[in-house]
Every structure is written in C-alpha cells, then in structure tokens.
C-alpha cells in the first residue's frame, strides 16, 4: 500500500512490470516540491535532488555553485563536507552533476545508517549552504600573484572549475558541441556553456553566485527522486524535518522556453585551436556537421519517433547514413557528435564528418542531404525498422548498474522529463509506446514521411564547419596575458595587498583542521562480515568447460566464448586491438560486412571482442592471457545469438580491404579524441610500462604508445600492398585463435539456463584439442620510465609510479589502503584545493604491481611532482589518528563491495576466476584490508616508495617543452 507523509500528497502510482518497480509521484503541499519514488526490492537505495538551473551566460555559474554548495553548510560548518563524507561512508555512488539546464546531487548506499547520514548532509548542503567567499575563490576563480607575496610578479587566474573547464575545452568534441549549440539554440540557455567557458569564468562575481543560489536552490524548483526498498513516507519525513518545513512556495517558475525557430537553414564557419606537429596534415583536420532541432523531449511519441529515425539512419554500418559517412573519401570518420541528443528541452539530431578538407564542406552537406532524400523517396527495408525497434526494446529491458547504480540509471532516464514538467513515468514505462510505434512502422511510407518532416522539410538546420587554427592557442594565451596585465595596471596598492591577504586567508583556510565530529560517520563495525559472491556452475559440454550463472536479467541472456590467447610475434601482437575490433565489424561466411551488421542488429543488443592480459597474483612477471567474444540478447533470440556467435568466431573474413581501411581510420579518430578525457589513465599506463609485461603491453596497445602506433598504421594503409599485408596478418592471428582451447559463459534467469545450454550443445559439437598450442607469452620487464607526451591540451596530467607487489602478497592490501590514506590526508588538499587541479590522488594497481601518484587537469607541473614526494615525508613525520586509517579502509571496502548489475557481477566473477582470483583469495585480500594499521602504512611506504625506483610520465602541451626538459624527461609527440 502506498502511504505519503502528511506533508506530501500522492498524485499517482503505477507498477512497471518490465522494470520490476512501482513508480510513485508526490507533491509537497507547502512548496510544490516534486518527489518521484521508484519502489523496488533492492537494498541499494538511491537519492537525488535536482534543481532547474538555467544560466544566461557562459560564466559557469551553475557549475561553480554545484562545487561551492558542497563546501560547508548550516548544520555542518566544516570546509569540505562532501569529500569528508566520501571517506566516512560506505557509499556505492556519490557525486554532483551540472547539466545544461539542471544541477543534481545524487548518492547511493546499501547501508541504511550510511544512507541517512548522507541524506542529512546532502539536504543541508543543497538548501542551507554557507557559500563562503573563499570557497568561491577556491572552487570557481580568483587572481593571485605568481609569487604569492610579490605584488611585482604577474597576476594569474586560478580555480578548480577554471582549470577543469580548460581541460574539458581542450577536447575538440567539446568545442564542436558547444560551438554548434551556440547556433542551434540562438536564444535559450543552451546557447551558453553551462560548465563555463574559461574566457568568461573570471567575469562571474560572488554576488552573482549568491543571487543564483537564492533564486534557483529552493524546494519549489526542486525534484526529489529516490529508488530502493526504503518507503517513500520515510524519505519524506526526513525531507520535511531537515529542510522543507522551513520554506514557503516560490512565486517564480524557472523553465526553459521553446527555442525561436529559423525560417531557413544557416551555415557558419568557426575555428578551433590545434597545434601543428611534425608529420601532421592540418589541411584534413576540419569538422563538418549538420544539426536539426526537432520536437520537445517531453512528448514521448515524438521522442520515440526521433529515436527510431536516428537508429535507422545511424545505428550500425549498414544503416544508410552511417554507411555513407563511413565510406566517403570526403572525411576520415563519422563525427563523434553523430546521433540524437534528448538531454535538453528540445531534441537535436546531428550528423557529419571529421578529418575533412575545408573546401569540401559543400560536398559533405550535399552528400548528407542526398542520402536523406533517398531515404525519403525509397524508404528502408522493413527488417531494418524491426531491428531498430528491437534495439529500443532491449535497451528498455536491460538491468544496468555496472557504471552507475541501476536505480540511478532509472532516475536519470526520467530526470529530463521531470525537469521540463513532462511525464517522468512515461519515459520509464515504454511498453505501450513501443507497441504504438510497432503499429506505426507497418504503414508503407512511415519512415519516408518521418525523414521529410523531421529533417528535409525542417528549416531549423545548422551547418557548422570547424576548421583548425595552428596559431589560435597562442592568441588565446596572449589575450589572457593582456587581460591580466590590464587588470594589474588598474590595481591600487591597497588592491594588491587585498589580493595577497586573500591568498593567505585561503591558504590558512585550506590548512585548517576542521572538527570532523560534526559530521556523521559509519565505522568498521558497520561493514558486512562477508564478501558478496555470485557463484556459478563448473561443468562441461561436448568437452568444453562451461560456467553458468543464474541472475535476474529481466529477460536477457549473456553469452561469452573465451579462448586462450595464442603466442604472437611482435608484428602480430601490435595488431591485437585491431583484430578485436575487426572480428565483429567484418563480414561472416558468405555475408559481407553490411549484411552481417544487419544480422547483428536483428539478433543481439551488442557483440564485441576483447583481449585481457594480466600478471599472476604471486608473480607479476608471469602473465596469462585470453580473448573473449561477448554478446547479449533477448531470451527469445538466444538460439539466434548462438548461431551468430558461432559464425563470427569460425567464419569471420578478412578480405574486405576497404572496410578494414575504414575501421582503422575510425578507430584512430576515436582514440585521438580520448586523450584529453583520459590523460591521467594514459600517463599512468606510460609510467608503469617498465614494471610488468602486462603493463608494458597495455601502454603499447591501448596507451599513448598504442595511439602513436595506430596513427603510423593508419598512414601506412594508403598503400594497398600494406593494406593486404595487414589483412593477412589479421587472418593469421585468427587461425591461431581458432586452434586455441576455449570455454563458455552463460548468464540468464534460472528457468532458461537449460535451454541456453541446449543451444550451445547443438552448435558446438565436440572437437579434438590441438596438441601443439602455444600460449601467449611476454618477456619479463624491469626498467624506469621518464617521459612526457605532448598533445593538444591546455592542462597537465602528472604521474609518478613505483614498482610494488601483486595481489596475493600481504602488502598489496596495505598499499591499496595507503592510496586512500594519502589522498584523503594530503593530496586532495595540495593537488586540488591549493594547486587548482580538477583531481589528484594515489592508488595501488595490483595487476601491474605498481603504486601510482597522479593529477588530472592540472595547471601545475614540477610543483605537483614535488607534492608527490612531500606526501611521503608527511606520512612518516606527522602524527596521525586511527580515524584517518579507518576512513581509508572504508573506502577500499566500499569499492570491493560495490554491487554491479546482475549480469555484470556474474561476468566479473567469471573473469576474476579465469585469472586465479578465486573467492578464497578475494576474501583473503578483503580481510587483510580490514586488518591494516598505521604502522603498516608507514612500513610499506618506506619499503616500496623509494625515490631511486620512481618512474615519471606526464601528458602536457608544447608550451611546457622547456619545463619538461628541465625535469629530464624524454619528449614524445602524440
């Protein structure tokens, strides 16, 4: 029975069988605050409060407010309650997000005491934030003298968000999107960069920040969303007592109006900064995209029709528009923006190319329009429409939870509709709407009419041509220098002294030790005594090993075929990532790749191949390696999926040379775009490359060296002989894989597992085992690395790494706890708060037996590396309390115990046990974590983190060449 707290009224309640939830919508009587509760039989409870935030400039006010609101509140007047709670909690998720038109504060926990602790802190932070001016200076922006106490030194901009957005806007895809939105949305909030443009962030004043908070952070403008097994009335009692009872209804209504529509398409050209590097051709670095503004996201029928059209046009390589964009010589690859965006008030559809010549923009536009015209005239095969609907159904049914908690995924699905006062329940209960759409696609000219209405006859269309400019970075830098020089010229002596005094006041605030007892906490006594474990069967069929796992997959089945990775020479080894991509992107048997892509879309939700190479738990130099083919499907398609998997592994063909050429170009484009978002991970791979064979291989195949090798491969394949040679090598790898021992994984609901096994038995008859199989091998590695990689970024990613021990060694658990201890007690303050980096920390990687210090989107370089050394002195020379150790242990246990999706947990257990990480070993590691002491932390630091053993890797930019040279780093250009 659904019961509301007396301060709330129930508006409606609806059971959604496909998701195993009951959705309840409530309204707070006094303020009008909305509460949407997703009642589920799941103890991972989720909370989110969202505020409609609609900025009218690019100062990043909503983003900076999201950060600053978490820096102390009325009940919790400590400097950093958010990060303090991260380490005093067993949360399975904790964060804050700023979108283009909302700001959200979500968390999740499986522990009721922990959930209520976090709820109290979040409610107070959102509705009763202190908004200290020094926190605004730290998190948003400030000016300081380059030498803090020297008013004759230059002024510099600082601030966490300022540096975060400098890093974010180094991404060409981000620049492309924000430039496109400037024209696609000429009059609404989406015209601006809600995260903040580094050029405009310093324009924001403290008074403007406070005004935005007072007008936007109010219950009348709030949406409360919860998921799990805590009743709605229980949540509402806390909402009322902790926050809502102190508010009255707000008179104003915050919303995003409908966009003013163009009467004719427009074409615009802008530039983006791209530094020239040796051997790079800037003539083919232009992006050409076309975008249409469609209907409102709150109209479910229109939204699903737009989704269907986007899927039909772009879902896979056999889709008509995707095929044209992949195969044309006018560009390197389809644009990273291709697809439909429904995260805002009105839907956008985008398509285009990257890696183009500026003079080809007209031809690209005509190519796209001609393709759309052909669809509007000829339509598409009915099975393509059915396949697109199949994909929508599968996405609706799948139980997620491997990245975000499943409950949070459902909440985020309905948040856009709630933000714009649409129907959040309708977006969760798609069965009826999908049935209506299935009826519509039976109309002979349905897709033709849709293409005409939404695209060809829609005048609100923008063509953006974004060209590279090799001097733009320098001009931006000079403009900033000139701006700061002008500002300094206007300062009085009193102004200069005020800047110095504020710098000292901020430093004193950052160094201040807050009374942590003001905040609630959980302790080691709240930790579950046992590791949560998903067990599977250990059986065989037709001579093949099989693992079967029963899981609540909501009508989906997951299948994997895992082969021992065979021995490969260096040439073949370098092609392993391309082989994994190609296996599911090329033709199969007598089908070409287009027919195969159509087959995949009709049968499975996804199919992919990947390799995994790890060091042994007791000897990191001894590796084991596997190749896995993985797919998922609806239960009704389980037999068809088995057919597809069998054909893919046994009959994939490597003779489609032009397709192979496209795949290399597309993969290169994606990998190059990934650098600015993953700079710290790539730098960690580089720094650890001398510490274990698996780490070296990761760097060479998927790290910075791998991107460099991929660019060289792509450049070489313009020669057809080289292309044929590459295809031949891939076929050679495949023949070796076919001769390798293999085993199988099945995950699904208990009542279907026997049927799934029968499918496998039918398709995989017994075969004799190859007696001459040689397993993958890598020679031992032990070398120090000191290198810097230069790329197109405005910030730095710094890493210092030390060789340590693998997972089964008793000290591995201690080193894992040490990472959190150093981050919590020292690195967060020095790297992020004082240094201005968006993030920083330390961790132990048990797979490569390495301990890594890292920074993320960091304005500093040498000073950060010095902080990595200073933290070790702090560890040994400072007095520490037990609570700090306990908090670090809680963080590690929280990550170990973090739940995944039902299928994800089964797959994770399967792969852990492939590499010898048995339940007993995982329990042993967890127990060792719980037993760590302060003396252990100090001992392992002095034993393993010795300066003569350190390796360094930095991802930076050309402007840091001299500084990197002084550090003695070998310079490499990406």
Notes on the structure:
By secondary structure, the protein is of the alpha+beta class. The protein is 44% helix and 19% strand. It has 35 helices and 28 strands. The strands form five sheets. Strands 1, 2, 3, 4, 5, 6, 7 and 10 form an eight-stranded mixed sheet that branches. Strands 11, 12, 13, 14, 15 and 16 form a six-stranded mixed sheet that branches. The chain starts with 7 loop residues before the first strand and ends with a strand. The mean pLDDT is 94.
Brief sketch in words of this structure:
With 974 residues, the protein is an alpha+beta fold. It is built from 35 helices and 28 strands.
Question: Keywords for this structure?
Answer:
974 residues; 44% helix; 8-stranded mixed β-sheet; single chain; alpha+beta
Computed over alpha carbons, the radius of gyration is 28 Å
Mean pLDDT over all positions: 94
Largest sheet: 8 strands, mixed
Beta-strand percent range: 15-25%
Number of helices: 35
Could you name the ranges where pLDDT drops below 50 across 5 or more consecutive residues? none
Distance between the termini: 61 Å
Counted beta strands? 28
Percent helix range:
40-55%
Structural class: alpha+beta
Shape: globular
């Amino acid at each position: 029975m659904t019961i509301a707290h007396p301060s709330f009224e129930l508006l409606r309640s609806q059971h959604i069988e496909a998701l195993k939830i009951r959705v309840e919508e409530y309204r707070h009587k006094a303020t009008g605050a909305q509460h949407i509760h997703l009642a589920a039989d799941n103890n991972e409870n989720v909370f989110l409060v969202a505020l409609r935030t609609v900025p009218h400039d690019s100062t990043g006010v909503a983003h900076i407010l999201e950060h600053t609101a978490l820096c102390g509140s009325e009940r919790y007047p400590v400097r950093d309650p958010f990060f303090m709670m991260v380490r005093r909690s067993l949360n399975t998720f904790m964060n804050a997000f700023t979108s283009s038109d909302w700001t959200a504060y979500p968390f999740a926990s499986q522990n009721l005491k922990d959930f209520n602790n976090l709820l109290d802190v979040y409610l107070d932070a959102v509705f009763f934030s202190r908004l200290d001016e020094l926190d605004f200076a730290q998190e948003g922006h400030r000016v300081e003298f380059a030498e803090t106490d020297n008013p004759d030194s230059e002024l510099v901009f600082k601030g966490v968000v300022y540096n975060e957005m400098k890093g974010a806007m180094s991404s060409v895809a981000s620049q492309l999107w924000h430039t496109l939105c400037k024209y696609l949305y000429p009059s609404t909030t989406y015209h601006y960069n809600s995260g903040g443009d580094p050029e405009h962030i310093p324009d924001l004043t403290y008074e403007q920040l406070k005004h935005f908070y007072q007008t936007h952070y109010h219950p009348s403008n709030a949406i409360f969303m919860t998921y799990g097994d805590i009743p709605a009335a229980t949540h509402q009692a806390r909402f009322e007592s902790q926050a809502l009872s102190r508010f009255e209804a707000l008179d104003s209504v915050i919303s995003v109006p409908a966009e003013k529509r163009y009467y004719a398409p427009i074409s615009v050209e802008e530039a983006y900064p791209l530094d020239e590097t040796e051997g790079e051709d800037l003539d083919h670095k232009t992006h050409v995209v076309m975008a249409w503004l469609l209907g409102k996201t709150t109209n479910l029928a229109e939204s699903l029709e737009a989704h269907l059209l986007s899927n039909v046009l772009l879902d896979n390589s056999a889709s008509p528009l995707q095929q044209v964009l992949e195969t044309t010589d006018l560009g390197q690859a389809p644009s990273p923006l291709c697809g439909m965006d429904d995260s805002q008030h009105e839907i956008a559809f985008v398509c285009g190319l990257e890696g183009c010549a500026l003079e080809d923009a007209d031809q690209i536009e005509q190519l796209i329009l001609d393709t759309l015209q052909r669809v509007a005239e000829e339509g598409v095969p009915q099975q393509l429409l059915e396949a697109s609907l199949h994909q929508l159904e599968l996405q609706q049914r799948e139980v997620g939870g491997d990245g975000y908690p499943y409950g949070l995924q459902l909440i985020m699905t309905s948040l856009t509709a709630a933000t714009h006062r649409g129907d959040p329940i309708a977006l969760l209960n798609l069965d009826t709407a999908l049935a209506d759409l299935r009826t519509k696609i039976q109309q002979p000219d349905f897709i033709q009419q849709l293409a005409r209405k939404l695209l060809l006859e829609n005048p609100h269309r923008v063509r953006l041509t974004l060209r590279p400019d090799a001097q733009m970075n320098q001009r931006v830098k000079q403009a900033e220098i000139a701006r700061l020089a002008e500002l300094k010229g206007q300062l009085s002596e009193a102004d200069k002294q005020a800047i110095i005094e504020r710098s000292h006041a901020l430093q004193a605030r950052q160094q201040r030790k807050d009374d942590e007892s003001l905040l609630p906490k959980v302790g080691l006594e709240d930790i579950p005594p046992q590791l949560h474990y998903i067990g599977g069967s250990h059986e065989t069929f037709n001579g093949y090993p099989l693992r079967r796992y029963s899981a609540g997959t909501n009508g989906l089945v997951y299948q994997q075929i895992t082969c021992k990775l065979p021995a490969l020479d260096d040439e073949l080894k370098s092609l392993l990532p391309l082989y994994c991509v190609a296996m599911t992107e090329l033709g199969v048997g007598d089908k070409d790749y287009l027919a195969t892509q159509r087959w995949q879309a009709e049968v499975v939700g996804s199919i992919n191949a990947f390799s995994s190479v790890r060091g042994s738990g007791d000897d990191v130099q001894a590796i084991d390696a596997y190749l896995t083919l993985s797919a998922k499907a609806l239960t009704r398609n389980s037999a068809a999926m088995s057919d597809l998997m069998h054909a893919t592994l046994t009959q994939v063909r490597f003779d489609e040379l032009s397709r192979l050429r496209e795949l290399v170009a597309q993969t290169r484009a994606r990998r190059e775009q990934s650098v600015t978002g993953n700079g710290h991970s790539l730098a960690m791979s580089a720094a650890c490359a001398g510490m274990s064979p698996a780490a070296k291989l990761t760097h060479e195949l998927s790290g910075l060296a791998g991107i460099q090798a991929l660019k060289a491969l792509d450049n070489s394949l313009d020669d057809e002989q080289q292309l044929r040679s590459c295809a031949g090598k891939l076929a050679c790898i495949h023949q070796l894989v076919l001769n390798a021992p293999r085993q199988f994984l099945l995950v699904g609901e208990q009542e279907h597992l026997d049927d799934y096994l029968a499918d496998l038995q039918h398709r995989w008859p017994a075969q004799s085992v190859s007696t001459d199989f040689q397993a993958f091998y890598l020679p031992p590695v032990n070398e120090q690395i000191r290198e810097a990689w230069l790329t197109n970024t405005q910030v730095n990613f710094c890493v210092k790494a030390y060789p340590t021990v693998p997972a089964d060694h008793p000290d591995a658990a201690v080193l894992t706890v040490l990472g959190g201890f150093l981050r919590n007690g020292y690195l967060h303050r020095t790297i992020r708060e004082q240094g201005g980096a968006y993030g920083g920390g330390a961790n132990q990687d048990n797979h490569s037996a390495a301990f890594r210090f890292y920074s993320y989107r960091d304005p500093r370089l040498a000073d950060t590396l010095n902080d990595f050394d200073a933290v070790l002195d702090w560890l040994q020379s400072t007095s520490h309390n037990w609570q700090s150790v306990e908090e670090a242990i809680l963080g590690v246990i929280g990550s170990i115990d973090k739940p995944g999706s039902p299928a994800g947990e089964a797959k994770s257990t399967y792969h852990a046990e492939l590499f010898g990480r048995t339940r007993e070993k995982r329990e042993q590691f967890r127990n060792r974590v719980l037993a760590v002491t302060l003396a252990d932390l100090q001992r392992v630091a002095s034993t393993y983190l010795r300066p003569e053993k350190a390796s360094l890797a930095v991802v930076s930019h050309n402007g840091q060449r001299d500084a990197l040279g002084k550090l003695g780093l070998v310079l490499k250009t990406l």
